[in-house]
Amino acid sequence: DARVTQTPRHKVTEMGQEVTMRCQPILGHNTVFWYRQTMMQGLELLAYFRNRAPLDDSGMPKDRFSAEMPDATLATLKIQPSEPRDSAVYFCASGQIMRTVRGHNEQFFGPGTRLTVL
Amino acid sequence: TQLLEQSPQFLSIQEGENLTVYCNSSSVFSSLQWYRQEPGEGPVLLVTVVTGGEVKKLKRLTFQFGDARKDSSLHITAAQPGDTGLYLCAGVHSGGSNYKLTFGKGTLLTVNP
């Protein structure tokens, strides 16, 4: 049963510390997404990769967030330095997305990393 | 900003009741999806609709895409406690990329036994 996995599931840290979140997408999927979910804003797209190449990171605060995909089995989202306003649940999702076929864009979400920055 | 507005924001009903939740926008979407999210988990896709006026059924759930592809509804018949969760609609804007889903903020449904 193929699933997206994320680690850690929970992270509590102090303001100013570096936070790294990891994701293992479903093998064979060509696109990996990072989202952030808060009560106020809902689900927001931060960045996504196609075939490991970054396509769009316009949803991320550039000065402190970075996303990478060092290989096909690992995507990372790093926050340095972290701030209390970064507290949220961060989701990774993957999918076999066909750019021009309407509706061919199912995303499979991981269980999320709940981040609390004190 | 092209938004998806979901209503109601919260809904608490008794087992066996019927309900409808809505997803509205002023923008046209090339496709729209409904996800359900349970506590501590990520969203799980329920359905994708692509044609204006399209109706899809998934057991007791009926999904409809508006004729103009600007809105959608989800109707649940005889709700059960297992239907409890956050229901999210998400769309790809007409002319937009399949990579970029815009999510609504969701309807939090509680079905009481």
How would you describe what is shown here?
The complex is a heterodimer of chains A (118) and B (113). Chain A is mostly beta strands. Chain A is 0% helix and 53% strand. Chain A has strands spanning 5-7, 10-13, 19-24, 31-38, 42-50, 53-56, 65-71, 74-79, 88-95, 108-109, 113-117. The N and C termini of chain A lie far apart (36 Å). Chain B has 113 residues and is mainly β. The mean pLDDT of chain B is 93. In chain B, strands 2, 4, 5, 9, 10 and 11 form a 6-stranded mixed beta sheet that branches. In chain B, strands 1-3-8-7-6 form a 5-stranded antiparallel beta sheet, with no helix packed on it. Chain B has strands at 5-7, 10-14, 19-24, 29-37, 44-49, 55-58, 61-65, 71-76, 85-93, 102-103, 107-112. At the A-B interface, β5 and β10 of A face β4, β5 and β9 of B.
Q: How is the secondary structure organized here?
A:
The complex is a heterodimer of chains A (118) and B (113).
Chain A: E1 5-7, E2 10-13, E3 19-24, E4 31-38, E5 42-50, E6 53-56, E7 65-71, E8 74-79, E9 88-95, E10 108-109, E11 113-117
Parallel strand pairs in A: 2-11
Antiparallel strand pairs in A: 1-3, 3-8, 4-5, 4-9, 5-6, 7-8, 9-10, 9-11
Chain B: E1 5-7, E2 10-14, E3 19-24, E4 29-37, E5 44-49, E6 55-58, E7 61-65, E8 71-76, E9 85-93, E10 102-103, E11 107-112
Parallel strand pairs in B: 2-11
Antiparallel strand pairs in B: 1-3, 3-8, 4-5, 4-9, 6-7, 7-8, 9-10, 9-11
Which descriptors would you attach to this protein?
heterodimer; A: mainly beta; 4-stranded antiparallel sheet; 53% strand; globular; B: 6-stranded mixed sheet; 5-stranded antiparallel sheet
Q: Outline the low-pLDDT stretches of chain A.
A: none
CA-based gyration radius of chain A: 14 Å
Give the helix/strand class of chain A. mainly beta
- Give the averaged pLDDT of chain B, no decimals: 93
> What's the total helix number of chain A?
0
Q: What characterizes the major β-sheet of chain B?
A: 6 strands, mixed
Strand element count of chain A: 11
**How confident overall, as mean pLDDT of chain A?**
93
Report the span from N to C terminus of chain A: 36 Å
Shape of chain A: globular
Oligomer: heterodimer
Biggest interface, residues from each chain: A-B, 30 and 24 residues
Low-confidence runs of chain B (pLDDT<50, min 5 residues)? none
Helix content of chain A: under 10%
